[in-house]
Design goal:
Blueprint: H1 2-41, E1 48-61, E2 76-87, E3 92-104, H2 106-111, E4 118-131, E5 145-157, H3 164-167, E6 168-181, E7 186-198, E8 210-223
Antiparallel strand pairs: 1-2, 1-8, 2-3, 3-4, 4-5, 5-6, 6-7, 7-8
């Protein structure tokens, strides 16, 4: 009888700390999950300002570019871009973009081969940008890798026209970016976008309504502290 009581008290004193530890563990897990949700919805969903500088290559799609069989190296040309983004949250923001460089077009080359079909341009856009990695319930501003999609409208200008109306064209742009964060402030990115402009921007009118251009650029982004 005495040994039975000893066994009973041994089991009782052994199980109590285990039960208390289990209850404490559940409470700790619940507290961690609550803090994680609060962090993901509040602190990690803050906005920020960023500035980016990139350089790459572009290609113009105008009269005779595809039908002439021009080799790719004669159609590619360098350009650069500067962008300033205002992120309202970790998901949505606005972006101002300025590009500059020159295009190559076969119709321009056939008209005057001395300039190799080149004509300079500069454009500016106001865009809406989103980070599709944060479309779910879990928000995080400092993601190691982010994928952005942006779209907007603006104007494109070239100095290689005699009359002012022919120097300008409304333009629309759609693009995407793969952003890889280095630290809290710096990141590198690879970006690809395409623009639609009016048909006579290269000073030639064909059987199309619009012409286009596409670019691929590698850049560096700085995010201001918040």
């Amino acid at each position: 009888m005495k040994s039975g009581k000893n066994v009973f008290f041994f089991i009782l004193f052994f199980l109590c700390p285990v039960c208390l530890l289990h209850a404490q563990s559940e409470e700790s897990i619940h507290k961690y999950v609550s803090l994680r949700k609060q962090t993901s919805y509040v602190r990690d969903n803050k906005g920020s300002w960023t500035v980016s500088l990139a350089g790459g290559t572009n290609v113009y799609f105008g009269e005779n570019d595809l039908s002439s069989g021009t080799s790719p190296d004669k159609r590619l040309s360098p350009y650069g871009k500067l962008t300033v983004s205002c992120w309202l949250s970790s998901v949505w923001g606005f972006r101002a973009q300025i590009d500059g460089g020159y295009f190559k077009n076969q119709a321009v080359r056939e008209e005057d081969d001395r300039n190799k079909g080149e004509f300079y341009f500069m454009d500016g856009y106001l865009q809406v940008i989103t980070n599709i990695m944060n479309w779910g319930t879990y928000k995080r501003t400092n993601r190691p890798v982010s994928v952005y999609i942006y779209a907007g409208g603006g104007m494109i200008w070239t100095p290689d026209r005699k009359h002012a109306p022919a120097q300008y064209s409304p333009a629309a742009v759609l693009g995407g970016q793969l952003n890889v964060r280095i630290n809290d402030y710096w990141s590198i990115y690879l970006e690809c976008d395409g623009s639609i402009i009016k048909d006579n921007f290269n000073n030639h009118t064909g059987e199309r309504t619009y012409e286009g251009a596409a670019g691929l650029a590698l850049g560096l982004t700085y995010r201001f502290p918040y």
